[in-house]
Amino acid sequence: MTLDEIAYNILNLVRGGKSHHDETISLSQIKFNIKYYRAMFLRRDFARNGLVTRHIEQDLGCVKLIKVDASKCCKLPIDCHVMRTEVKIPRTVRFNFEDAITYVGAIDGITRIPMSQSHMVKYLMWDKYTGKNTKAYMIDDYLYLYEPHEIGLVNIRGVFENPEEVSKFDCDDGACYDDTQDFPIPGDMIQAITQGIVQGELGLLASTPSDVELDRHQDNAPSPNIPRPPQGQQQQQE
Predict the structure, then answer these.
(1) Residue 165 confidence class, pLDDT cut points 50, 70, 90
(2) What is the dihedral of CA 172, 175, 176, 182, to 10 degrees?
(3) Is the separation of the CB atoms in 159 and 102 below 8 Å?
(4) Cα-Cα-Cα-Cα dihedral of 142, 145, 150, 154, to 10°?
(5) What's the whole-number mean pLDDT along residues 171-183?
(6) Which residues are registered as beta bridge partners of 63?
């Protein structure tokens, strides 16, 4: 089910299937509510079950890396070679004590690069057995690689707060996300999101009648301070 389908379903439930072009409830507002309800429910579900299914995970494709000055990165020595993603990574859903980045690694999608905390990077070189291994870490929404060994591209997957931001990344068949793709959420959560929005944020707006007369005035409750012009005069103004 796409984001548009979920949003239109909520709007039709609120309006009883009778929405109009001059609808006072914005679809953009409904989509915004859907996205932050999704982030909240996914965090709660992970805290309870500790499971990330493929239906909520999104792939950023092959993300390009660029060389950066290591001296500006976690106080690393000048001669430490680090690489950084060329663009910022979309913000992830907040899991327990970690970002919801589910995979960082080679472009084959299976050779994983371990993630490390940024404040621990300066100690990695002293590790006797893995000090020369490639490690990934995040600073300011950029992903960095310690000891990259000439890696120029990485594949990144995760559970992101705003799935639509993934559309900025390119995959083999076009954008990694568009409005025609299924919204990354389990079907069993759609009912809970719909109920929460209809009974919460849209509760007040739902009491506002739609403009079925297409005169940009509330049909059942015209404002006493703004009298309606006669119908013929209104048509001349238009």
Answers:
(1) very high
(2) -120
(3) yes
(4) -60
(5) 84
(6) 154
